[in-house]
UniProtKB/TrEMBL annotation:
It comes from the Bacteria. Belongs to the LysR transcriptional regulatory family. InterPro entries: LTTR, LysR_HTH_N, LysR_subst-bd, WH-like_DNA-bd_sf, WH_DNA-bd_sf. It comes from Rhodobacter viridis. PANTHER family: HTH-TYPE TRANSCRIPTIONAL REGULATOR LRHA-RELATED, TRANSCRIPTIONAL REGULATOR. This is DNA-binding transcriptional LysR family regulator. Keywords: DNA-binding, Transcription, Transcription regulation. It holds the Pfam family HTH_1. Residues 5-62 form the HTH lysR-type domain.
Amino acid sequence: MPEPLDLALLRSFVAVIDGGSVLAAAARVGRSQSAVSMQIQRLEDEVGRPLFRRDGRTLRPNPAGEELLLHARRLLRLSDEALASLRRPQEAGLVRLGVPEDYAAYLLLPVLARFAQHHPLVEIELICEPSAALLRHLETGRIDLALVTRYPHQPFAILRQERFVWAAAPDQAAWLRDPLPVALFEAGDIARRYALEALQAVDRRHRVVCSSKSLHGLIAVAQAGLAVVGMVEASIPPGLVALSEADGMPSLPMFDLSLLASPGAEGHLTGQLHDFLTAELRGPVSTPMRSDEPAA
């Protein structure tokens, strides 16, 4: 019978792939670089073939590494679940989390992946809808937690801020057209409000060529060169670039993000996810008073 694969070696192997280097993996698994390098060498000796190829300074899995990665993730997940079910049986359950679509991929999903490593028995149901809809779901108890964009008049604590910018296809120069073609979220969305208010403030002639509740729909219109779109800077995809006042576009305000819990969501798991997200997502927040907020 062949010897079973060592889970400690597999954990370092996955860490190297996720981090892209031995240095990054060493920080993730709490070992020295030399120790991680030796683990990778032992694993390659055990499976009888190389598992990586170098891409500059980055380590990437070769075909054998890609195949092993699928099994390694599954084995590690099963091991974590087995230990958690014995050591922390009270941590099994479901938490329903709401988030606007444009925050999900670049901001929230990597954090949820780290949460799952620490709490493998907790299931997270992700609901992607605009902030206004998520606030209604919180009130009715349909969801337990929500990461939402805070309107200026709302008294929610600010967790972090994100830059809201104009974006467009660089080879189409839609921002030079008159009237300016814009693609916006549907009525009621704060991004639509901020974009229209910014254009009106500088008397920029514009026409709405697309209204959509889907970020992907707005991105497709902008990538085709048919319009400029207002979006969170960190979520700008390939094919679009951020515009500035130098391009003739009015500046846009920052987005304030808040993490809120449903009034009826008092469970242990909800609290754990709330605390984890707060610690992972908290960022610097500027505190100038908005012109539409009353003085204290």
